Amino acid sequence: MGFAATPPGRPVRLGLRVNRVQFTLLVIVNVCVGGLVGLERTTVPLIGTEVFGLTSDLAVFSFIIAFGLTKAMTNLAAGALTARFRRKQLLVVGWLIGIPVPFALAWAPSWGWIVAANVLLGVNQGLTWSMTVNMKIDLVGPARRGLATGLNEAAGYTAVGATAFLTGYLATVHGLRPVPELLGVAFVAAGLALSLVVRDTAAHVALELARHTERVPSGEETGLRAVFARTSWRDRSLRGASQAGLVNNLGDGLTWGVFPLLFTEQGLGLAAVGLIKGLYPMLWGLGQIPTGHLCDRVGRKPLIVYGMLFQAAGFALALVLLSRPLLAGILSAVLLGLGTAMAYPALIASVSDHAHPAWRAGALGTYRFWRDMGYAAGALVAGLLADAFGLSATVVAAAVLTAGSGLLAARWITEHPAP
Predict the structure, then answer these.
(1) Phi/psi of residue 175, each to 5°?
(2) What is the structure's pLDDT at 6?
(3) DSSP string, 326-358
(4) Which helix (H) or strand (E) holds 66?
(5) Nearby residues of 373 by Cβ (< 8 Å), 6 or more positions away
(6) CA angle (372 as vertex; 148, 162 as ends), nearest 5
(7) How far is CA 277 from the centre of its chain?
(8) Which of 32, 301, 385, 393 might form a disulfide with 187, Cβ 3.0–4.6 angstroms?
(9) Are 259 and 277 in contact (CB under 8 A)?
(10) Which residue from 295, 282, 293, 285 is spatially nearest to 351, judged by alpha carbons?
(11) Strand partners, 239
(12) Which of 191, 179, 182, 220 is CA-nearest to residue 358?
């Protein structure tokens, strides 16, 4: 049983208003998706150092590496799997795989269990987040892709931020484990239940394909290998979006691991660190509602380029004001959040613009592969630099890489003609 985008017996139509029921259900599902990964934003790096006694920053960040690698590979596989399975089936499987995660985080007897839980979390996030964004794009059609992706990412990352803030508070009152992590049980239960209710969007994809004026050229390959190559390097705009997505999440992976350790070293408590770690994704999330709409009006490229430069400024500000750590953390979180809110929906919309509906899911899967590989790259770079040169050096590296990525995006990405 489920809610249809249109009542039974009436034709399938594209658009946000006519599909508002199903679209809203998918927004709520992505709140649950974001909430589950938000469990880790504040407490898990500190669990590594304070509960399990890890002394190497690279060892602490190993859970992010495991998460990023697994999520990236799952994103890539998800694009190919949509050719064999319905989006709803993959969405439900993603939730089933996520069931053990909150329990493992709450009661893991060793750090290895935490890393293993992040492998499951990566698969969960790769399937569930990929399917929610694909299904929303399917529903609204080409004219409102920016708004659809903005709403999707806003729901997820606002939940990430709210959960990061709440877990910081709960850790202050109840300790690092198990109370903060058990919030995840509610997210998994609600996400799975709603995913069973949502209807699949295969009919909407078929309708858009039927209407699409640009046919796939005869002989053009649409398999995973060809789409991966086209999205990763052959198409100039898709290449520009893929590298920007990778560097964007490289910075996020770095802040995920480094900021809790950096600001606790400066004397901030768990509640203050939770505020910083929560503010960044909440602004990132809520900001994507207006920026997603804006990129449908002014184009994708300006928001991508300036968003990356805003993020670079946020990293720089964290170090410039580090002698006043709470102010530094809050102002850095504001710039990082606003910059990411500008770039994130515009990047997904740009990839959607340059991909034919016949291979769009594969292109989005490839883009999301590179984007979420940034988590692993960021954690690896952060761990190596922090062990060798200190935590501050990792923040400098993030600022330089992010600014450079913005300039590459300005050079490579072109606007696609409005539908």
Answers:
(1) 95, 170
(2) 43
(3) HHHHHHHHHHHHHHHHHHHHHHHHHHHHTS-TT
(4) helix 62-81
(5) 68, 69, 72, 246, 249
(6) 60
(7) 15
(8) 32
(9) yes
(10) 295
(11) none
(12) 220
Please, what is the end-to-end C-alpha distance for the chain in angstroms? 34
Q: How far is CA 165 from CA 35, 209, 412, in A?
A: 11, 43, 37
Rounded Cα–Cα distance for residues 330 and 417 (Å) = 39
pTM for this structure?
A: 0.84
9 is written with which tokens? 């017996």
Q: Does domain 20-206+221-412 have CATH number 1.20.1250.20?
A: yes
* Cβ-contact 252, 375 below 8 angstroms: yes
| Distance separating alpha carbons of residues 365 and 224, to the nearest angstrom | 10
Give average pLDDT by consecutive 10-residue segment, the chain, 419 residues. Answer: 43 83 93 94 92 93 94 86 88 97 96 97 94 88 76 87 92 94 96 95 81 58 83 95 96 90 92 90 87 88 97 96 95 96 90 84 87 92 92 95 97 78
Helix (H) or strand (E) holding 34: helix 20-38
Using DSSP, state whether 110 is helix, strand or coil. Answer: coil
